[in-house]
Write the structure tokens for this entry.
Amino acid sequence: MEGGEATRVMVAVNESTIKGYPHASISSKGAFEWTLNKIVRNNTAGFKLLFIHVQVPDEDGFEDMDSIFASPDDFKGMKNRDKIRGLHLLEYFVNRCHEIGVPCEAWTKKGDPKEVICHEVKRVQPDLLVVGCRGLGPFQRVFVGTVSEFCVKHAECPVVTIKRSAAETPQDPIDD
Amino acid sequence: MEGGEATRVMVAVNESTIKGYPHASISSKGAFEWTLNKIVRNNTAGFKLLFIHVQVPDEDGFEDMDSIFASPDDFKGMKNRDKIRGLHLLEYFVNRCHEIGVPCEAWTKKGDPKEVICHEVKRVQPDLLVVGCRGLGPFQRVFVGTVSEFCVKHAECPVVTIKRSAAETPQDPIDD
């Protein structure tokens, strides 16, 4: 129990639907702060946080509807910009860990978040996966999908979902 | 993050279906060991474990089918015996915590485990509920109920379920 390898906690993070990049969603921040305050506490050497951010290709490419692509380099530019947006999001979490002194790693992937998260769990084998969730009712859930519910069912490691508090829930609970 | 109140982790425990009282189930022990090894680690002052054991009245009374009840005291004796069995189960977990130096509390309740656990979460408001589970397939689940699934859905706090490893799973996976 004393020494041994650090407990590896994977935290799935995404951007805010209200503020956009590079702002983290309310539920991602909540999941992160819960992990720090309730699990890591002052035992910074005992844990390593692994941040995974999955970018949805369709969503990210949406703004490019009005762009004109004239050369292969234009596409390269677009891909780089997406990458930079994702990195800015991760920067927030990595900076916070650095301030506190918790070892961490962070990376982005493209794809369907729920499937990519489960795939990364399989690959990286963390001790715990922490996923924020909006705490939506059944009616709202139908339209927005439920990354957290999918992960609870399918991720091959223990999973904890952290609901937003009532105080943090925006007027439209689908926003995050 | 440093000081503040200890993180209160509720661990739901039950008896083994194979070994009976006072032996803890494989999944309870797994959930407990996971909590110690992966969460508490050497930060014993940062956590408090709360053990809840819910006794199912029907199950516990089953052996009394062949008993003869001649006076109110006979019933009292039966109730006391049930109580003592539950306490022996909790003794295992409390003793382990004491050895390691993790503060803990333990208590028993009567009723339907899944409902009583959620009720106790509401009353006690832990920071995390840890529930062991057998990791049954959908066919097996129909017959044995799924305390862990119910708690994930209904408990008013973050919940993590800990599946047994393949090595710990008995020949009949419904046993625990």
Observations:
- Chain B touches chain A at residues 1-4, 7, 34, 36-43, 46, 100, 127-128, 152, 158-163 (CB under 8 Å).
